[in-house]
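Thanks for the sequence, V.! I ran histidine kinase right away. Repeating your input here for the record:
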Amino acid sequence: MNKILSKTRNLILILIVLSFFILSFLLFDIYESHKKDKDFFKIIILLLVPILYIYILYIFKRIYDIANFHLKESTKIFNSQKNILLITDGKEINDANRAFLDYFSYKTLEGFKKDYKCICDHFIEEKGYLSAEMGTDSWAKYVYLNPNDNLAKIKRDNKIHIFKVFVQKIEESKDIENTKLVVTLEDISNELAINKELREQKTILQNSNNSKAQFLANISHELRTPLNSVIGFSNLLFDTKLQKEQYNLLKNIDNSSRILINTIDDILNVLKIDQKNIELENNYFSFDELIKNIEDIILKLSINSKNIFTLNKNIDIFYKVKSDKARILQLLTILLSNSYKFTQNGNIELEIRLLNEIDKNIEVLFSVKDTGIGIDKEHINSIFNEFFKVDILNHKDYSGTGLGLAIAQNIANAFNTKIEVESETDKGSVFSFSLSLEKIKEEKKNSYNYPIFEDINILVVDDNKANCELSKKILEKSNVNVTIAYSGEEALEIFKKSKDKFDLIFMDILMPGLNGFDTTLKIREFDSNIPIIALTASTSIIDKELANEIKMDDFLSKPVEPKTLFETIFKYINKVRTNEIDYKSAKTNLINDILNIEVLRAKLSNNDLVIDILRSFIEEINSYFINIIEELIKNDEESRNMLYSLKGMSGNIGANALYNACIRIENKYKRDINPEFEDIKLLKDEIENIKNELKYLDDL
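Predicted structure:
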C-alpha cells in the first residue's frame, strides 16, 4: 500500500511541474504577441500567473488528499482483516496485510522477501493440502481454477495451522498468468479442533448410548427369561381340566405376566425413540376385541376419576384386520391417559370412525377429545418433543416424564401416520390419527390345536432349565422328539455325535461360556443347511442383525406362542404325517359355572318359565344394570344398591360366577375397602360371559 501511495504522490508532483511549464509557455506566447503594450501585459502576467498557479496547486492538492484518504482507508481495511491477505502473481508476493506480517513475525514485507520468495515455501506438502506446484499449475492458479475446499497446512512456532484458501483476480483478464491475484487465507485450526472435540464427544455419547442399549437389552433378557416360563406353563395349564375359580386365577397370572412383558417393552421404547426404530408385528384381530381391550384401559383409568367417558363406535365392530393391535392400544393408552390426567370433572370421548373402505383396505380414524386444561398456541408444536413438559399454572398434579407423547408420535410414524392436535387453553384438546388397515376374512378359531408331526427331531439349546422343560412339553404335544442341551458346549458335543439326527435347532443367544452366536458358527462348520432358529428373550436390534449376519434362519422373541412356534417349524420342516395336517383336539376343559341352568329348572320344573325368567334377567342387565360398571367406579351409594340387586338376581338364576364376583366386591364394602381395578374388571367380564351364554335362549 505504501508503494501505491508513493507512486500516486510522485505522479501528482510531475503533473504540477508540467502544468507550470505549460502555463509559462502560454504566457510567453501571449506576451510576444502583445509586447508593444508592455505595461498592460506586465500587469496581466503578474496577476494571472500566481492566480493560475495557485488554482492548479489547489486542484492537485484536492486530488492528492482524496487519493490519499482512500488509500489510507484501503490500507486500514487491508490491515484490519484477521485473515491473511496477499497480492501476488502466484510466484512472488507484491503486497501483504498486517495479519501476514504478524503471523510470520516480520515488520515489513521486504524483510520477509529477503528470506522467502513465496508463502508457498511454508506449505507442508501432504495429500489433501496445497503445495507450491499443483501439477503443471502454480498453487494460486490451481485455487483460482478449482475454488472449492482448498486447504493449506503451515507450521509456525511448533504448531501446525490449517488455512482455507480463496483466490480472486484484481482485474478482468483472460490471461491468468499475467494477472495479479488477491489471496485470502482463513485460519480454521480452532474450528477444526472444536469439530474434532465435538466428534470425540459424539463418539463418547454414542458409546454411552450403546452401553445403555446393551444394559436395557440385558435387563430385558433377564426379566423375559422367567416371564417366558410363567406364560408358557400357564398356557400348558390352560390345556388341563380346571375349575372355574382355578381358570380365573390362572387367567390373572397370565394377564399380569403379559402386562409385565408390555412394561418391559415400554422401557425399551425409550431406547427405540433414540434409534427411531419401532418394529410393528402384524397379527389378526377384530374391532370387537380391540374395543374390549380399550374398555379395560378406560376401566383402569376411571378408578377415582370423576370424568364422564363416552365411546363412539362408528364402525362395524366385527371387522377383522391385520395390524399391530398392541401398538395401537399403546398409542391410545398414552392419549387417553393424558386426557384423564389433564381433565378433572369433565368429559372424555373416544371416537372410532370408518373413513374409507377400498377393496381389502379400510381407513379408520381414532380421535380422543377432552374438556381439560388445553394447550396454548405457544407450546402446541413442542408437545411431541422428548422430555417436553409445560409448566401449566404450576400444577404439580400434572407431573410426568415428558416421554408419553414423544413415544406416541414415534409409534404413529411407524404406522406411516401422524398424530394431529387441536387445542385451546381452558377448553380442551383433540388428538387424532388415522390408520390404514388390511381387512381380512374372519375365521372362527377355537383354542389352539396342536399339529401332529412324524419323526421330527429338534435340538433345544438353552441354559435355563425351566425354559427347556417348557419347550419340551409344548413340542412333545405334537409328537416331536426333543433333545435338550443346557449350554453351547453341550450342544456341540451332542451335534457332533449325531449331526444327521436333527431336523432343526432352537438356539438361545445369551448363554454363559459359548453363546448362541458362537455355537451357531461352530455348528455351521459341520452342517451349513440345518435350520437354526434364535429362540431368545433378547429384543436387541443388534442381536437380530448379528443373527442374520451369521446365517441363523430366523429370530423368535420369548415368550413365543405355540402357534408361532409351530408355524416356524412348518416353514423350515416338511415332515408332516400327510399333506393334510392331522390335528388333535386340545380344547380347554372347564367346569362351566357361568350359568347352572339345572338349578333353575329344578326349582321351576318348567322350561318355558325358565326361559322367560332368563329373558327378563338379560333385559335387566341391558337396562337397569347397563351402567353398573361406571357407577361402581364412582363408588357412591347408588352403585352399592345396584350391586346388591345384581347379586340377588344372579344367585337366584344360578349365575354362580357373576354371583361370586358380586360377593367379592360386597365383602370389601363391608370392610370399608374400595373395590380395586381387578375386582371391577372381573365383574365386567362375568356380565359379558352371562350375556354371551344367554344369546340363544331358545336353544336351552
